[in-house]
């Protein structure tokens, strides 16, 4: 997270004062922010959002186990399995946070490229590839979660 935040801060000085931040389906810019506003926005999405998600998924269940929505929750949060289950949720949340940080750092890289062009243009193929990789990563995390907390406990 610190490396990604440092990357955004270190490379944003080369952006124009008015940064293209939103792009249409053709890749042409159709939304803008100030450079300072863009840096704040990216830092929020690189540091605050992943931290909040990790806390919500990995830490809140320790404080409020009644809010945990798992199949067969009574089994998975039973006294003999509770710590293992909550440890898994925390580790899983951390991996989700890592995926989010990497995705946002890669988005920043693509926005650097887009704003280097005149007029600004998002490289569409790398963006679609990045989006597909992010969705694939989410799918892997979901499968891992599903496999760990099956509806029926292992025998």
Helical fraction equals 55-70%
The low-confidence runs, each spanning 5 or more residues with pLDDT under 50, are none
Tell me the strand order in the biggest sheet.
1-2
- Overall number of structural domains: 1
Taking the alpha carbons of the first and last residues, their distance comes to 39 Å
> How much strand content do the residues show?
5-15%
Tell me the series of helices and strands, N- to C-terminal: HEEHHHH
Structural class: mainly alpha
Major pleated sheet: 2 strands, antiparallel
Radius of gyration: 19 Å
> Could you give the count of β-strands?
2
* Count of DSSP-assigned helices: 5
The mean pLDDT is 94
Shape annotation: elongated
Short overview:
This protein is mainly α and 155 residues long. The protein contains five helices and two strands; from the N terminus they run H-E-E-H-H-H-H. Strands 1-2 form a two-stranded antiparallel ribbon.
Describe what this molecule looks like in 3D.
The protein is mainly alpha-helical. The protein is 67% helix and 8% strand. The chain is built from five helices and two strands. It has a two-stranded antiparallel sheet with strand order 1-2. α4 (82-116) runs antiparallel to α5 (124-148). The longest helix is centred in the middle third of the chain and has 35 residues, at 82-116. The radius of gyration is 19 Å and the shape is elongated. The model has no long low-confidence stretch (mean pLDDT 94).
């Amino acid at each position: 997270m610190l490396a990604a935040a440092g990357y955004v801060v270190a490379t944003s000085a080369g952006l124009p004062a008015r940064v293209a931040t939103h792009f249409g389906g053709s890749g042409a810019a159709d939304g803008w922010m100030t450079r300072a506003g863009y840096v704040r926005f990216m830092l929020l999405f690189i540091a605050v959002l992943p931290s909040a998600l990790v806390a919500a998924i990995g830490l809140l269940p320790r404080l409020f186990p009644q809010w945990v929505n798992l199949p067969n929750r009574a089994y998975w949060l039973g006294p003999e399995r509770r710590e293992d289950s909550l440890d898994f949720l925390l580790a899983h949340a951390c991996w989700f946070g890592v995926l989010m940080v990497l995705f946002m750092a890669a988005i920043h890289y693509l926005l650097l490229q887009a704003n280097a062009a005149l007029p600004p243009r998002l490289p569409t193929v790398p963006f679609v590839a990045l989006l597909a990789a992010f969705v694939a990563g989410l799918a892997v995390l979901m499968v891992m979660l599903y496999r760990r907390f099956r509806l029926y406990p292992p025998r």
